[in-house]
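Handout, page 2. Input:
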Amino acid sequence: MERNVEKQHITIHIYDTQISIMVPKEQEQMYREAGSMINERLNTYFGHYKGLKSDKEIIYYAMIDIALRCVVESKKNDVSPITDILSTLSSEIEEVLK
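Output:
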């Protein structure tokens, strides 16, 4: 069943470009925060490497940085190792109580 999601058009300024996108209305603020995060990373990398590396390469460095942060954060939120341990412990406790 497809849910009708109300979308709206927004423009986000990314480094030196205006990006126009349609976003779910309830996620507008998250898109704007994502744009701010991208700009912060780009500004940092351009501040360090402008004139030393191509703009394209600097953008790739920023992309890797942002992606790495996402991967690290997702690993922090991964509860499967804990769930596996709890499942094993539960099984062992059940065996002892039999």
